[in-house]
Each structure stands twice: as C-alpha cells, then as structure tokens.
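hiii so my PI (J.) wants the whole complex modelled not just the main chain, which honestly fair. so below is everything: two entries, each one labled with what it is. i double checked the lines twice but i was tired so who knows lol
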Amino acid sequence: MTATSPNFDVSTSSSASSALTSKHLKDKLFHWGLYGAAAFVLVLLGAIIVLLFKGGFPALQAFGLGFFVSAEWNPVTEQYGAAVMLYGTLVTSVIAMLLAFPASLGIALFLTEVAPVPMRRTIGTAVQLLAAVPSIIFGMWGFFIVSPLMATWVQPVLQAIFGPIPLIGELFSGAPAGTGILTAGLILALMIMPFITAMFVEIFNSVPPVLKEAAYGIGATTTEVFKAVTVPYGRTALVGAVMLGLGRALGETMAVTFVIGNANRIKASLYAPGASIASTIANEFPEAGPGSMKLHALLELGLALFVISFVVLALARWLVRTRIEG
Amino acid sequence: MTRLERRLLTDRIWRMIATTLAALAIVLLAWILWTVFYRGATALSFSVFTTPTMPPGRHGGLANAIVGTLIQVFLGLIIAAPVGLYAGTYLSELGRGKFADAVRFVNDVLLSAPSILIGLFVYELLVKTTGGFSGFSGAIALAVLILPVVVRATEDMLRLVPGSLREAAFALGATRAQVVTSVLWRAARAGIATGILLAIARAAGETAPLLFTSLGNLSWSFDLTAPMASLPVTIYQYAGSPFDEWVALAWAGALMITVGVLLLNIVSRLVLAPRGKAS
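here's the output for the full assembly
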C-alpha cells in the first residue's frame, strides 16, 4: 500500500456529507479492486510454481538429481530421466538462435535504414503478421511442406558438403529423414525470427538520430553507421531481445512436436529424431495416468522448463530495461 | 580499387544482403499463407461449418470444434479481461514502488511463459482436483494466457493518456474511481480494445494448454464440465492421423484459424492507426 498516491484520499474532511462519504467508500472499494487485481497476478505465478513443484516432487524424490543426467525414459521399468529432452531442447534452440539472429539483424537493418520510408510500415506489418501465425500452423507447414524438402534437397546437399569433414560431418550423418533435430531448429528459427526482428527494429529506432547524423557527417556509409553506431549503442538491449527470443524457442511446443521426430535417444547427427521437453510433455501426457510416476516425471520436466525459461527471461528483462516487446 | 570504392562496394553488398533477407521473410509469409489457403480451401465447404467431427468415411465437419473454441475463448476472455483491466490500471495509475515493480516483472514472466506449462498448471489445479477434463478448465487455461496481455496493454495505453486530462477531472472534484472509469478508460478505449483483440488472437490459436484441460471431444458438447472440442486440438489430432479425409479437414481448420488470427491482428492495427502511438 506504500504505492498509494497522496491525493487519493481527497474527501476526508470532517464536514463530509453522506453523499461524499458514500463516494469516498466507493472510491476506497475501487482502489482495493485495483490493488487486488494486481496482487492476483503475483498469486497466479506463485500458484503455478507451487503446483508444478508439488506435482513433480515425487519424481524428484524418486530419482533425485540423477533425473537430469539420466537418458533413460522407460515407462515399463518406471525409470525416467530428462537428459534426452534437455539435450533436444538445448540443441534445437541453439540452431534456432544461430539462424534467427543474423536473419533478424539483416531484416531490421533493411527496415530501419535500407528500405524506402513508405515501404517500411507495410513490410514491418508483414513481418509482425508472421509473428502472429499460431505455432500449430508452423508445425503443419513444417511437417507437410518443409520436411519433404529437407529430405530431398537440403539434407543430401549439406551431407555432400560437410560429410567428408571429420567431426562436423558427424552432425550431418545418417539417413535424411526430413524430420529431426535440424528441421525442428529451422522451424523454430522461422518462428522466432519475426519476434526478434520486431524488437531489433524498436531498439534501432530508439538510437538518437544525432549520433547517426554525426557519423554520416564524417562520411560513413549506411552499413558503417549501422556497424559502428547503431549496433553498439543498442548492444545490451539487443542481447536482451535475443534472450527473449531464446526463451520463446525453449518452450515452443506444437511446431516442434510436429517435426522433431519424437524419439527418446541422443544421437550425434542433427538428422536424427529427438525430443524436447515441451514435445515430450505434449506427446506422453495422454499415456500418463493420474497419480502415475510418469505423470510426476512429466511435471518435473515442466518444472525444469519453467526454471530454465524463467532464468533466461529474467536475464533478458534485466538487459532490456526499456520495455519494448508487446 | 580505391579505398572509397571498396567501402561503397561493401555498403552495397550489405544492403543487398539485408534486402534479400527481408524479401525472404515476405516470401515465407506468402508461402505459409498460400499453403494454408491452397490446402484448406480445397477441403472447405459449407458442411464443414454445420457438421460435427465424425469417424473417417462419414464426411464429418468441424462445427463442434469451432463452437468449442468460441465458447472457451469467450469464457476465458470474460474471466481474464476485467482482472487484467484492473491490474493494468493499478500499474499505470498507482504503480510505484517495489510491489508494482514485482507485479510488472511477474506479468512479463507470465506473458512469455511457455504455454504448455499453463496447461500443466491448470491440469493440476482443476482437472486433477475435479476428477476430469472439462471445457471450463480449458477456458481457465486460456484466461491465464489472456490476462498478462490485457494487463500490459491497459498499462501501456493508460500511460499514453495525457496527465492534463487527469488533472482536469480531479479539478472538477471527481474521485479517483470516477477519473479512471469515466475519463481514462474512455480516453484509452481504442488502445485497450486493441490489446483485447490481440489477446483473443493469441488464445484462439493456442493448442498446448488445451491438450491437458479441455482435451477435445469428437461430438457436440455444450457442457462446461465435460471435455470440449476446440479447433486447434482437433487440427492437431487430425493432422497426425492416417486418414486423408481428416488431414484435409485439419487444413480446413488451419485456414480458419489463420484467417481469424491474422484478421484480428490487422483489425487491431486499424483500430489503433488513426490515433497513432503519440496521442
């Protein structure tokens, strides 16, 4: 209640008429309504944490910290470990970031410096519409359209280029099945690219024009200004924006479930099918009976995902101190 | 080649790369839309809107899924919107100090939290305790997704209302409640409406939270305590099925969802456009 502003209690004079008192009472109630709604937001997050923890606790008790390093996921022997899912989540997100970051940077450069001014709004809107496409649509498109293309064109070509190189060749070994870790990473990249681009554009637009003009004034070209002034000025916020994108990639469910292949094993090849935390929860939940150890294990996976994305998001928010994302 | 020429060439190359990348993004949007329209339109017919889902071979439609989505989104919205409006107003009008900072941060966390976790949360909260999947718990899951969007939109939009408007209302002897309800909310209504439209768009396309809450239903259900079909969950089940007829219906559903969500986004932009962000 320390946040109450001083002019809130305007009508507390001793000669207040009953009309004024009733008005005052209504005002008090209204204030408590506002306060209660705000407090509810806090309670909600608290409840999410408590219930996920409570649900996952039996699994944590049964498997201890070994849960996070064991690659076994066996409903028959009731042995559950999260290593495969942690690996899948991490690798697909890293692939997504590696592809989405340069693409977003380029598109943001185009939208803020290169494109003719009348075009910027239209193209910017198109990019934001891409961000609004539901993830299940990305999943279907990825499964029916992109995966076959990956299998017939992209994966054999990558194999031909990188295959002979030791170590790196391992990443592109195996049968080009279309679905798998690599395709999941690619679809994730396409999903978070518009989201990161929108934040980049906001950051670049917030750079004081004077700084850019000064650089242009001493004869710098557009890309030199971009590289030497715009990007360094927004550096911290850019990192924050990338981490917000990462947070989104880590928890994305439907698109990944369609294309990751859903196999509980870790392979060196990026062509191999895998599983992410979110895809495992979505896939295995229907077979997890109420009260079963499997359900507890899935809830513990959920808790792990929550902790990971919470840390990433908290870090991101701390970096993007200016609130930009909508 | 002189140093200047080299620099100008580098500039040209980077501009071309940036332009190509932007063009690729547009191509990507066009490609996805074309796929959804092409595959969805061939499966779409009037009966899809009037017939419920049926076993393969019996020419079912998506009517129960469409109605289920409408019910759950609408119910989620009327639960979450008032709370979001109040919380957002608190942050904008009274929100100073540590408590408000905490609420703001937690709201941001909720806004970006993986939606599948919201599904698990509502499963633990309602499905497990009441003993069954239900349309109501689906609506609650969507409400949890809608709430932070409305909080953020309300706060941002109220902050755009000029302080002189508040001062003028106070000078007339209005209480804080009157200032908020009859001046601020009115002044910011277009912006808040935009936020609500975007929240609807977000909730309507969500699949993951509904998998564990309303589950899906292969026939008509208006009972909020029983499992209820929804468009995204039906799309998910049908797209992964081995029946061509079901896959075609999944594309028809995908077309509906995509058109609906993108239209809501475009309309929300048009609502806000005449006022501009600087008002």
